[in-house]
Amino acid sequence: MKKYISLFSLIFIISSCEVVEGPYDITEDCAGIIGGNAICGCTDTLAFNFNIAATFEDGSCVYDSITYGCMDSLAFNFDSTANVDNGSCVYDTSSTTYVKKVLVEDFTGHTCPNCPDAARELEAIHDIYGDQIIGMALHVSKAFARPYPSSQAPKFQYDFRTKWGDDWDAFYGISDIGLPGGMINRISYPDGHRMGINEWAAAVNIELSKAIDFGISISTNNTTISVSIEVLNNINNNYNMVVCLTESNIINWQKDGQIEVEDYEHNHVLRTVISDESLSTNQNFVVSEIIDKSYSINLSELEQYNIDYSANTAELGNGIAGGWISENMSVVVYIYNNTTKEIVQVEEAHLIN
Question: Read out DSSP for 162-186?
Fold first, then answer.
């Protein structure tokens, strides 16, 4: 008799269990599937992204350093090195594919103790969206970007400031509200364009969802920059195009909190603006229209201009602004609405290919 009672109880328990039909995406609503108190994440201590607080394995474990990118081999921009998909896959198989890109302008200074937090935020955003994010660091303000007096050498002797960075800071008033600060595609000018670093990610996400009106292609060497603009929609508006140079991997002093870091790595630092001109004399742009522009450059002359600006014009400058390394430089080209100041597309390429 006990045998039958046990068998009946087992049947009752099995029939009473709630069954969740699969397949389902655990990562989409893990807590909703297994209970509101669950903490979903990687529970494998051998994984790169092990989460000590996780109570439920959600299949997100990564066993190597994280590389974000498109993981679909059928996509146009498939990245074979990626191990975390960042949603950037493009399936357009046309000969030239353009994607929306966003310029993040980081107004900073080498004696600004909180500014490395902005640099880290920019890199975190770049890790998520990859090459759709183009950064530019502009050292501005007498308070945080001027060199130290020579009596305090070798600390903070380099002058990262440029004429254009100072001009843009004066126009957009970023350092007026303190550093670090920045702009995302210069949206919401003149009232909401100045953003703290905690606002950058949300603004980037909105910008990436916008339609693309222009495609930009860049070919370069150390003497010539060629830019080709393809019009992707019929547009009636007035636009300017800016061509500038940035440099990365600059090792120099930087305050990071209470620490003075001698070998800090400064990246995508604005070096010079080569052109800021009207995109076309005609503001009626027709789909498939191509606009080609070419610029001859002399890096030595451009570098000397910065040295002279630091020595003769920049407040409390000292002329220590050279030492450019062309192999570490990039060309950044962006198109902006001349009325609203909003940047509608941006592209980047290494200076030497």
Answer: -HHHHHHHHHH-SGGG-SSEEEETT
